[in-house]
Specification:
- The structure is a single chain.
- The chain is an alpha/beta fold and 261 residues long.
- It has two domains: 1-10 and 37-63 and 76-84 and 162-261, Rossmann fold; 95-160, no CATH class.
- Helix content is 40%, strand content 23%.
- It is built from ten helices and ten strands.
- The strands form two sheets. It has a six-stranded mixed sheet with strand order 6-7-8-3-9-10, with helices on both faces. The protein has a four-stranded antiparallel sheet with strand order 2-1-4-5, covered by helices on one side.
- Strand 7, helix 7 (176-193) and strand 8 form a beta-alpha-beta unit.
- Helix 4 (102-112) packs across helix 5 (117-130) and helix 5 (117-130) packs across helix 6 (146-159).
- The termini are far apart.
- The model has no long low-confidence stretch (mean pLDDT 94).
- Bound molecules: adenosine-5'-diphosphate and magnesium ion (MG).
Length: 261
């Protein structure tokens, strides 16, 4: 790569929506989406059901092609799925392979990346350790709680060593305590790995708690209504962050937005 190409790719945002429209089956789903996500940023997207949150995520994943405008990853147009962009789905039950134990589910990502067999065992142990599953490598998904299965899905996504992690309501099916634990684990992991995160949720407080910015989408067709910067210090704390006046202010603003739809 030439010096100028290096400079360009470093200057480019990690992800860029540039005037993106998307129609599916003749229906306008997203309209005029402009958004730049910088490297290492944690972006949360909220909006009423059906407004196009998942569709935005699928555009980044390369599952849809913009009808107008472009979605760029590190300065290049996204034109299909790439191992550099990993996805964590809400439905861990469908995302994990039930006939593979935890270690072999993580191995799946390494196999796809053609990591030599001799290196896999250590990497699997490392990634399971990162999500607190070191002692559960031999367990099958059916033998794990929902929280453990979601940790496993995160371990598998991180094993891809992605620069971007797409998360679609990943903690939506978990109980409140498990959800908070996983929020904190997730923040730690992506901060340590420098991963850029695009996180879809319908939980206002979750969006503020996790995000550097919160994007609100309004429906029919999906448009960006607003982008809110979250001026809350890191590391976030489940008690003090949620009591911070800035947290409460944003909660009110976002609540009013959701109520308005
Ligand atoms: N493949 C598709 N074909 C036609 N319409 C779709 C398709 N996928 C999603 N939609 C529609 O796009 C809109 C946005 O969907 P989605 O992005 O899943 O919303 P959200 O995740 O915000 O709940 C919905 O009205 C949905 O019915
Ligand atoms: Mg969705």
């Amino acid at each position: 790569m030439s010096q100028s190409a290096v400079a360009t790719s470093q200057a480019a945002p990690e992800i860029c929506f540039d005037g993106v429209d998307l129609s599916l089956g003749g229906l306008e789903i997203l309209k005029g989406i402009d958004l730049e996500i910088r490297r290492g940023e944690f972006i949360c997207v909220i909006g009423p059901s059906g407004c196009g949150k998942t569709t935005m995520l699928r555009l980044i994943a390369g599952f849809h092609r913009a009808t107008a405008g472009a979605v760029m990853h590190e300065g290049r147009a996204v034109n299909g799925p790439s191992p550099d962009i990993a996805i964590v789905f809400q439905d861990y039950g469908k995302a994990l392979l039930p006939w593979r134990n935890a270690a072999d589910n993580v191995a799946l990502a390494l196999e796809a990346m053609r990591v030599p067999k001799s290196q896999r065992a250590d990497m699997i142990t490392g990634f399971l350790g990162k999500v607190g599953l070191a002692d559960h490598a031999q367990k099958f998904p059916s033998q794990m709680s929902g929280g453990m299965q979601q940790r496993l899905q995160i371990a598998r996504a991180l094993a891809q060593n992605p620069s971007v992690l797409l998360m679609d309501e990943p903690f939506g099916a978990l109980d409140a305590m498990t959800r908070q634990t996983l929020q904190d684990e997730c923040l730690n992991l992506v901060e340590n790995m420098g991963t850029t995160v695009f996180f879809v949720t319908h939980d206002i407080e979750e969006a503020i708690y996790l995000g550097d910015r919160v994007v609100t989408l309004s429906p029919n067709p999906g448009r960006i209504a607003d982008i809110h910067t979250v001026n809350l210090p890191r590391p976030r704390n489940q008690l003090t962050t949620r009591e911070d006046p800035e947290f409460l202010r944003l909660r009110r603003v976002l609540f009013d937005f959701i109520q308005g739809h």
